[in-house]
Specification:
The complex is a heterodimer. Chain A has 20 helices and two strands. By secondary structure, chain A is mainly alpha-helical. The model of chain A has no long low-confidence stretch (mean pLDDT 88). Chain B has helices at 3-21, 27-43, 46-50, 84-100, 109-128, 132-141, 143-153, 158-186, 193-198, 203-220, 229-236, 239-264, 266-292, 297-316, 321-352, 363-366, 368-381, 388-403, 405-430, 437-440, 447-465, 468-486; strands spanning 60-68, 73-79. The model of chain B has no long low-confidence stretch (mean pLDDT 88). The chains are: A mainly alpha, B mainly alpha.
Chain lengths: 493, 490
Amino acid sequence: MNAMNWLAVYPEILLLLMACVVALVDLFVVDPRRTPTYVLSLLTLAGVGAMHLAYFNGGLTHYAMNRMVVTDPMGHLLAFFACVAVAITLIYARPYAESRDILKGELFSLSLLSLLGISIMLSGNNFLVLYLGLEVMSLSLYAIVALRRDHGASTEAAMKYFVLGAIASGFLLYGMSMMYGATGSLDLGKVFEAIGKGDANRQVLVFGVVFIVSGLAFKFGAVPFHMWVPDVYQGAPTAATLLIAGAPKIAAFGMTIRVLVEGLLGLAVDWQQMLVVLSVCSLVVGNLAAIAQTNLKRMLAYSTIAQMGFMMLGLVSGVVNGNTLSAANAYSSAMFYMITYVVTTLGTFGLIMLMSREGFESEEISDFAGLNQRSPLLAGVMSVFMFSLAGIPPTVGFYAKLAVLQALVSTNDSFHLGLAIFAVVLSLIGAFYYLRVVKVMYFDEPTDTSPIHAPSAARTVLSLNGAAVLVLGLLPGGLMAMCAQAIVKALAT
Amino acid sequence: MAYLSLSIWLPIVFGIVLLALGRDDNAGTVRWLALVGAVVSFLVTLPLISGFDTASAAFQFQENLAWIERFNVRYHLGVDGISVWFVLLTAFITIIVVISAWEVITSRVHQYMGAFLILSGLMVGVFSAVDGLLFYVFFEATLIPMYIIIGIWGGPRRVYAAFKFFLYTLAGSLLMLIALIYLYYKSGGSFDILTWHKLPLGATAQALLFGAFFAAFSVKVPMWPVHTWLPDAHVEAPTGGSVVLAAIMLKLGAYGFLRFSMPIAPDAAHTYGPVIITLSLIAVIYIGLVALVQNDMKKLVAYSSIAHMGFVTLGFFIFSELGISGGLVQMISHGFVSGAMFLSIGVLYDRVHSREIASYGGVVNTMPKFAAFAVFFGMANCGLPGTAGFIGEWMVILGAVKYSFWIGLLSATALIFGAAYTLWMVKRVYFGDVANDDVRELTDINSREFLMLAALAIATLAMGLYPKPFTDVMHVSVTELIRHVGVSKL
């Protein structure tokens, strides 16, 4: 195997190439609906997704670019879902963006570039590569949020997102420099070995971990690094919100596994404590603040915070008393949680976009009043998403919560058992505000009786999205097994 | 034949078809399709009882397939003497509910019928699951259709009632989820209820597990003091919702005690049995008194349901065959009788649009046929010998007297309170002179209403006169349960 091993990075190369092609082709497109570039972007995403899936099925782990990059089943599975997320977002976003005059070539090429950043984050084996991936993703997303230049709230959201995102990147970079200082390497494998040998200065390491975890927590939107989430989710055009809420969460998760588990597992005692605090705070703040919201996008933002808190509980049960036996179980449960969360979130924001029309954002919860009478299908799909987020069977959200709780309980440790009970109590509070959306759709009379003009493509994809949440709820075994397999292979290397 | 799977999935498939095809302009077809679905779903449950081997305590009609391999969760179904009658009861009540809604529900008929059919399948699933997680999935999933039913077709405070119903029940069952996961871990990675039954557990673990299961099931039963959601839910729910709630959903909780709490944590069950007996007696006596002072008929029957379910839990936790069989018989008979009581109230409400006792008086003068049924069901509700209501109460009281004279005596007062609140209501609503113009203009029940009330009356009478088929089916399973609970796990 040669040191560069280009084969391993074909999907990324294709993505980069196509992002440029889309940007160029778009210059010559006169169609206001941007059909050629839209189709080209979707084809690219389908191709890249198929490649990732094929690599995942191959099940092999390769290093490439002088060990700068690793490709393993976990990275490919997450990248595959990131492709799906971006593709679905574009399908939902097209009519929405068109009526808001932001359907430009930039939307497509920036989306592809952000996916490129995500791919790099998922396959980085080196602190700097990971950081570069994060920046590629973030810079594209900042620009996407700011696409709607003449809109006050969007501009404010973009500004906020940019400033806080830059701080987070700074934190991360600073933490990485500490790691480099203590271990003398940027390579995750070498850092892992150095920590294992115990000759690195532990104080410096722990100091660095604090910054790294803070930086990651910014990306997840965990409390107390959550301030940007509600404002950006609400202020950004819904299409951009979904681009932030979907695939980047997968990327943040992948990066967390790469950095904290593959690189810094030796410091698990330290970062697990931090994650416990982050997740407990996120669960409390997210769930309680969501109750008070009247704006659906803002409510979903707080709900995201709470959901991320729940997901992180899966990450804290990997190493118990220095024993890593439960690691695969714990991390795969968090991975399953993350993927199913993103699948559900795609649908919720997709529905908001579908319901909106020119000059009307449809983002207040009351805009959904009586939806069951206007469109039983959309109301049904939305309630499936809400029940899934609340964790009510038979939707997939239940199994995600089950997996994480199971990981906590099976540590056989009363502290983790307490965390599980705490999480359960707060998800009961969470159930209230999800149910309220269902209540508004089913029990209230419609205030707005204008017909919903949803294009059939978006409507079909939304129905499929709802069906996926339900079918994964009836047969979650397959995806669970895939996550477990991916994590086991990632830990083995 | 996989009769259990059919009993679960047939109504669900019919329900989904109704949701998919139904529109406001084809309500007639929807009603007939719903009726066909309910009847077919009932017919496929019949082989369960005709082919039931009453000599065996094992689960019968088992189906066992891998479901979620990662957690070793299995699609494992089966019924024993304890659960089999409830499968039939559920399917039977669903037919009645479909008939009861025929002309009454006029808006979004397909969603109403679909929700009830799906709910029926899910409840059958609860009674036939032998896998802990499968049980939980069905148990929780039943909340969704009922929430929708109360919220859309309910009364003026329906939103409040729907939320209260959902969140109360969810609060209890989430703790049970932790208990299930703990058992999964303790048993070395199995969600099989039968494995859990054999699993040795320490005293603390048993106490905690028992507490978690108690949280889930006591809310569902409901036991005093976590009963407050039930009167709200009953009052606000549409007639069909009240019928299903009283006749079947409450039984899910009581059933859970027999399937989980007692066999998995037998020592804790014995330790905390007196607590449950006390709570049950409070339900029987105090709630009986509360029922006495209600002005709203639905509320009165709701409180009466709580009191009757108190009898059930009392019977369970005196750990004798008489008590447990009596409790089970009481559950079935209460399914018929409370269902019929709510239907009767529905019949009046559809005509006068009031549930207040004070709005009526002398109904017998204008609705003689209906009054005959109503009085009959009233008698059954207070446990008149010859009706189904008598058998269960009598068995439980007999068991309770054997256990402790004073508990027996206290529980027997239920017969007095039951008679008092039921008969007093019957007197005020049905007898006397015609009270007002509303009552004067009442028309007697039509053939549809006659049919549904007659079906329940026959069931009530048959069970009261000849309960042997019910007790025979239960006998071996109950004996086995008592033997199992008698053996300490410590």
